[in-house]
């Protein structure tokens, strides 16, 4: 079957990939659509170190094709959004509704694929840039069949991460002021999450002027081209600042732009050795900095919730799909994303 493999030097669309049969508690999903998140590019650039060969992609939706022994949560033919967690379900964090903190979800590194005689890793336990993937059954969250796959695929990372960061991690209250740095797939979902939360002011920052229109469409009240211009529209600073690019200088800017009592949420992922700094005295005014993994989400609950909001017209998913590309045109999609030509996400179709 076809898939996108990164071998440590370059990535390529190949057609000699195989995936194992689902074992106990696992399912095979035929992928119908997959979003191109910056984290996939970060594996290729080395920003996110990952063993190779690895099958890329972690934001996808498709159809359950086969279930392994003992799987009861989904059945053949179900439409599903894939989550990247595959948490154990029985540790103290799973028990407390914090699956992103389940120790078994990080560094487990499954190798369900074979490529040219060698086992190949699954990226983020998902590998959705492949015609088929095998995941834990609790990673396949069923959705109604009338939801288009392209829209559904983006829930798997961008929406869970961005909207979740606002509602679950920061718990932005109605009336708060919000700053969003970086208007990509993640930033747009922070913007629409903040709008859902009832934020009074949503200032979006992106160096790409093409992002202004879509930022406003998703709920931004202001758009500026650099963090230096934020105080022109938010004199006192903001209650919440979300860094959605992955640069330490922008994390610093986000902290410097907090109003008294403000909170910075770091969503972007810089290189794994990056260190950031802040002025300690400035933090004295009840300010805080939060990390955030995958929107601190509970995929089984949140995928259903967000898809429901979408069907009621309260969450934008179709508008997140800026362009669709057949899997074979992966390199064109990457080029268009890196060249800043896309307002929101590139979606690969199968
Ligand atoms: N914390 C998590 O769980 C999680 C999940 C998914 C993605 N991420 C990370 O979030 C980040 C964003 O991902 P994405 O898919 O939205 O990327 P993207 O490529 O779609 O968007 C990035 C945006 O940042 C803008 N930008 C670049 N430099 C800028 C600057 N100096 N100032 C303002 N804007 C700037 C770009 O123009 C673009 O619009 C990445 O680092 C990704 O790895 C984190
Ligand atoms: Zn992602
Ligand atoms: Zn667990």
Defining traits:
binds nicotinamide-adenine-dinucleotide, Rossmann fold, Quinone Oxidoreductase, Chain A, domain 1, alpha/beta, 6-stranded mixed beta sheet, binds zinc ion, 350 residues, 7-stranded mixed beta sheet, 2 domains, globular
Short summary:
The protein has 2 domains: 3-156 and 317-349, Medium-chain alcohol dehydrogenases, catalytic domain (Quinone Oxidoreductase, Chain A, domain 1), CATH 3.90.180; 159-294, Rossmann fold (3-Layer(aba) Sandwich), CATH 3.40.50. The chain is globular.
Q: How would you characterize the overall build of this protein?
A:
- By secondary structure, the protein is an alpha/beta fold.
- It has two domains: 3-156 and 317-349, Quinone Oxidoreductase, Chain A, domain 1, CATH 3.90.180.10; 159-294, 3-Layer(aba) Sandwich (Rossmann fold), CATH 3.40.50.
- Helices cover 26% and strands 27% of the residues.
- The protein is built from eleven helices and 19 strands.
- The strands form three sheets. Strands 4, 6, 7, 10, 11, 18 and 19 form a seven-stranded mixed sheet that branches. A six-stranded mixed sheet has the order 2-1-5-9-8-3, with no helix packed on it.
- Helix 4 packs across helix 5.
- It is globular and about 60 Å long.
- The model has no long low-confidence stretch (mean pLDDT 97).
- One zinc ion (ZN) binds at residues 37, 39, 58-59, 157.
């Amino acid at each position: 079957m076809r898939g996108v493999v990164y071998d440590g030097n370059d990535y390529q669309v190949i057609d000699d990939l195989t995936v194992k049969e689902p074992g106990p508690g696992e399912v095979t999903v035929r992928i119908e659509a997959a979003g191109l998140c910056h984290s996939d590019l970060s594996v290729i650039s080395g920003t996110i170190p990952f063993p190779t060969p690895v099958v890329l992609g972690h934001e996808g939706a498709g159809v359950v094709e086969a279930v392994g022994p003992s799987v009861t949560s989904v059945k053949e033919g179900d439409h599903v959004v894939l989550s990247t967690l595959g948490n154990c379900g029985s540790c103290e964090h799973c028990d407390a509704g914090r699956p992103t903190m389940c120790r078994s979800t990080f560094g487990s590194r499954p190798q369900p694929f074979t490529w040219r005689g060698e086992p190949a890793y699954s990226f983020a336990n998902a590998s959705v840039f492949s015609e088929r993937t095998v995941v834990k059954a609790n990673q396949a969250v069923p959705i109604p069949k009338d939801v288009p796959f392209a829209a559904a695929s983006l829930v798997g990372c961008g929406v869970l991460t961005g909207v979740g960061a606002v509602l679950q991690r920061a718990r932005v209250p109605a009336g708060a002021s919000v700053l969003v740095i970086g208007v990509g797939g993640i930033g747009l979902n922070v913007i629409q999450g903040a709008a859902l939360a009832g934020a009074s002011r949503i200032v979006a920052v992106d160096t790409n002027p093409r992002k202004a229109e879509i930022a406003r469409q998703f709920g931004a009240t202001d758009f500026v081209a650099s963090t230096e211009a934020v105080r022109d529209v938010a004199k006192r600073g903001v209650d919440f600042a979300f860094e959605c690019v992955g640069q330490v200088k922008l994390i610093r800017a986000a902290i410097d732009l907090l109003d008294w009592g403000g909170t910075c949420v770091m969503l972007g992922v810089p290189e794994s050795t990056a260190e950031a700094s802040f002025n300690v005295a400035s933090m004295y005014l009840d300010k805080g900095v939060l990390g955030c993994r995958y929107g601190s989400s509970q995929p089984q609950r949140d995928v259903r919730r967000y898809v429901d909001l979408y069907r009621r017209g309260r969450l934008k998913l179709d508008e997140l799909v800026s362009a669709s590309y057949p899997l074979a045109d992966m390199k064109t999609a990457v080029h268009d994303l890196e060249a800043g030509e896309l307002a929101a996400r590139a979606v690969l179709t199968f």
